[in-house]
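Hi, here's the filled form for the chain we discussed.

Project: internal
Contact: R.S.
Residues: 190
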Amino acid sequence: MLRLHIETSAEWTDVVLDDFDSFLVDHAACERKASATALKLVSHYSDRTMLVRELIPFAQEELEHYAQVMSIILDRGLATRPDEKDPYVGALMQLIQRGPEQYFLDRLLTLGVVEARGCERFGLVADALEPGPMKDFYAEITRSEARHHGLFVRLAREYFPAERVQRRLDELLEGEAEIVRELPLRAAVH
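And the returned structure, exactly as it came back:
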């Protein structure tokens, strides 16, 4: 289990609940981007059999989540908006080191960190919502994200020594905590 080094503040949940429509639109974009990113990795690392086997179902599941969130958005009479740069993900990408092997390791681990933060935050949303279909939906999304962040760490351990993975994961988690401390709160997943 991947343990974040800082918890999301309670104020974040208040910001999300105050502008839940914006949160939904951002959530849809995150699911679509996660699916696309997984397929890009499959294409780029097609010689890594375990990665290909694991990330295709992951991409399909993320695409299904996208479809589910889009259905909610459309039912609410909302529309999506053009993609925006995610300041959280952008800051995390700055932590990735260069060099083919290091980049591969860091990419897997940063994706795991993103999924872990999403898991935590979807759980906060699920806890804050009134009983009903939306609460149930976010509880299920939380369970799914819990599986996802573990997937990326397992993949990293498949291709790199466990001690190297853990050392780099700790460094990235500390960097991610600093990013979370400094970013302004917004009605978005990250």
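Let me know if anything looks off before we file it.
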